[in-house]
Amino acid sequence: MSQNYNGFSKCNSKRFFCCPPVFLPEPLVLADLSVVKTDSPDPIMVGQDLTYTVTVTNNGPSAATGVTLKDVLPSSVTFVSASPGCILSNGVVNCSIGTLLVGSSVAITIVVQPNVAEIITNTVFVIGNELDPNPFNNTDTETTTVRIGQLLAPAGGFFGVNTALTDAYACAQNSWSPRATLPESREGYAGGLLPDGRIIISHGEIEGIGDTDTVLLYNPILDIWSIGPVAPIINAELMGAVLDGKYYVVGGRDDFTSVQIFDPIINSWSLGPRLPTGRAGLAVVVLNGLLHAIGGRTGTTPRSGTALATHEVFDPNTNTWTTRAPLPLARMDIYSTTVFNGKIYVIGGFDTITVNTVFIYEPTTDSWTSGVPMPTARSNAAAGVCGNEIFVMGGVLEGEFTPITTAEAYNPVTNSWRTNVAPMPVGRAEFNVIPFI
To answer: Measured between alpha carbons, how far is 303 from 399 in angstroms, rounded to an integer?
Structure first.
């Protein structure tokens, strides 16, 4: 006689074996997650955007759930952005990826700004809920060389009298050296550093000819200028900046609302959505993936027309312009505007007189504050970041028409200026100083 017990017979006869219950283990769920990280550019200058591209892949054999990427940022960098699905907490970027099917990948972009000239090391790692049969590919490390760099000062002039000379300022050595002369002199031009390391300048006024649509490209390694493709619109007293690998030229006295876009990959120009508030003598910078157009004037010559406080922002993702907080006071001829550690610095300029003000824009609060005034009031100057300082160079003084050679450096951390900066070899105004390595 027997009775059932958990599906097995409980035997009371010697003819039967008594069989205890057997529980088979559930099959293991395995998901081999891997991560690959790249950096660009490398080497990079202090204060320049460093972009990490991180690709997470599920190599199977099962789907991965609860996938999370973590990146402990070096202490010497400033966080700019991370997406998709990422937040910054106590210096750690946490990206929630969720479920990743077998064979699927996701790319995450992390942007930081190095603050110190050094070699920085950055490691990311990825984890999921499932057992990973190969944990050795869950992390990846990138090292990036950060340098102080140099500032290139090509051409420049004022009221039609300009130069074709080019000089480079070595920030660490506090010294200037000559570079290849431009094929043609110009002032009131736009300029920027392209992703491939070339420097572009476009438009402006050529002495004896007038306003132009011509483009020059500079190779700092070979020290050679070359001719680029002609821009769509003749213009001058405008500004440019590089956003998402493309060079944007905004405003100008010949077509106040124009937006011209150069794509170095296909070596051609196109037109973008027009600037809502037309102007010349404005500032144009890139911050957090947006193009900022700030201040300017309604007149067609320096110090003419009405100064503006207008601040408008272009988003390349939506292809639209929106309004941001205006400058505390209207300013024109503010080419000495730059970005440092996630903030915009508008320095000097002109309203009814030449000024030495420092206006600082904080994007997280959409608000402006003021810094310590510049020692030398000036307009039509240029500004660029080198090391941990903002260098303001050249320009013109109140009531004067001759460009000056004076250079001064502002430290945003200490909110202080120093004047022991080597002066430029020649006076310049309505020009650019462009950081390069």
So the answer is: 10
